[in-house]
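Need tokens for this chain, all 227 residues.
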Amino acid sequence: MSTLRSILVHLDGTDRAEVRLRLAHRLAALHGSALTALFAVSPSVLAVLPMIGGLPPMPMAGDIDPEHRAHAAAVFERLLQDHASRSDWRELRGEPVVESFVQHALTCDLMVLGQRDPRDKTGFDVPADFVEAVVLASGKPALVVPLAGRVSPNPGKVLVAWRGARESARALETALPLLCSAQEVHLVAPMSAADSGHGTTMSRLRGYLRLIRSRARRCRTCSAASS
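Here are the structure tokens for all 227 residues:
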């Protein structure tokens, strides 16, 4: 079964960065994962005057917002004291955000990212399409934390969208550590009139999930008994 050996969490200057990091710490503790927090934002853009001759000005990169970095660093240090799991701090210093984050993500098993809040200006130094771009470019699984509400490393209910393709099989395999701890797992899949084997496919999938979840419960029982 897939394991979460390494978790990469994105930090920025928003208040929800603490929610993401707290969730990543709890996941790391549950699965014995190595945890890396990466502060990744874009530097500000400086306004410049038009050049002589009417040529359009070239935008100039400024500095990383020091308040955003200080906020993220303070969150990191505070949660480091609150959790037993070890975590490492990494940060970008003006490098392209998406490309650099992807390079770090290639060697992790799970990314913990955050949904963009269009009303939170402290998150405007992160590209608007950051989550989508990172997921597509890295090919790595991501847990996207909503912009509001509470989150848990042990979800009560999980919805699995199945398409009968290798991408669905890979996503399911990656999500098994989370599915096994859920109280309920629901399956949903599109069905066409020409798909006569839909019921058989879903039956096999349900049997596979029951097998995996039962094995996981036996392993947890054995671990508890041995300790």
